[in-house]
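::Encoded backbone::
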Amino acid sequence: MPLEPGPDVQGVPVTARNWQDPPANRWAFWHVAEILPTYRVSRGPGPARALPAASVTGDPLASAVTRADGSAGTVGNVLADTYTDAYVVLQDGELVTEWYGALGAPDRTHALMSVSKSVVGCVAAVLIDRGQLDADDQITRYVPELAASGYAGATVRHVLDMRSGVAFTEEYANPQADIRRLDEWIGWRPDEPGGPGDDPRGLYRFLTTLRERAPHGARFRYRSVASDVLGWVCERAAGQPMARLVSELIWAPMGAEHDAILLRDGLGVAVHDGGLCATARDVARFGQLLLDGGVVPDVAGGVRRVVPPAWLRQGWAVDSDVRAAFAASPAEPAFPGGWYRNQFWFRPGEFGDVLLCLGIHGQMVHVSRRTRTVCVKFSSWPQAQHPVYLEDTLRAFDAVGGALAGRDPVPGRGVPGLVSGLSRHGAAPAPPPAGVI
């Protein structure tokens, strides 16, 4: 059940009902555990990965950016204009710059939203590498409760790559859409009309109600519930709850400095699709882990594997099937040349392909192998999706990497499109094409 309301923001108490809505969200995203039920994700007893200061000449925030509307600006302009709560920039594991708004701090966790999916995907990667999980197995081998649902016949790989044929609408401006029904079943809003009241029906129970619309594996469609199914499968395969899995397999071994927290539903089930909250520096450490191919430095001066390197190589090296499915999806016009694999987005950028972890209201991890940069942005956009803010931020982080690496743009790549429709709540300033993620 929701905790006590938070403080008044512009005369309105922050509650489980409005925590994602402006102006409450700017405070709420830094104080999620004070509003909603959570689990602790321990950083473990080991030392934090050091983030030494980088030696940088010039100001990377002064780098020029051509914004989505065609106007000229700088990286600093973009960050100032897009409701930024915090940002961190690393190059080769060194801290280039960071900033926190008045409500934030380096040791304060912030809501990550769908960036959580990428962390859960890495948990799955470790379990697959250990032989505890098989990506080619049917989901029902691990979760037989889904045998009567639309997930019957779907494999773990199908949910990893958002390729199941389950019917699920993420039409965020539509109060009757499935994504809104999911929120009701989670039980964060017990007084919601038609909601579960004092007897929340729960995330896992909701998943059993979904039905199949298309053959599994035939198409790519971004659906948050796929990550919830994946999380359930991981818990069953490992016999451990997700908060412990994230802690023991990812958070502690990567050298996190602070505990994270993980939202849960009214029945105690972790919200795998968007429930993680963490500090900006620790999210940057996660991005650096991805940039370095899944390994971290060890005390002897070598490296220690956390995420299987083959998992990340598989994601970066798009194959024809993955690319064709994306190209045929409603996401392609908005994100041309991109693909989705292993719970990551990939985007052709001005300085080479970029791995992205994206979340509603402007949460982002931007990983560029060619420029060796990791950029993290926490935001509290008034709208849960905002295509212009997203595109401007992608261009800004491309520019930061290019400036730090002294690189010229990749010939013929140009400025790519954007992914829209990353929201559960609210409408975009301009609606994306029908069915886009």
Observations:
- Confidence is low (pLDDT under 50) at residues 193-197, 414-437.
- The first helix runs from residue 24 to 28.
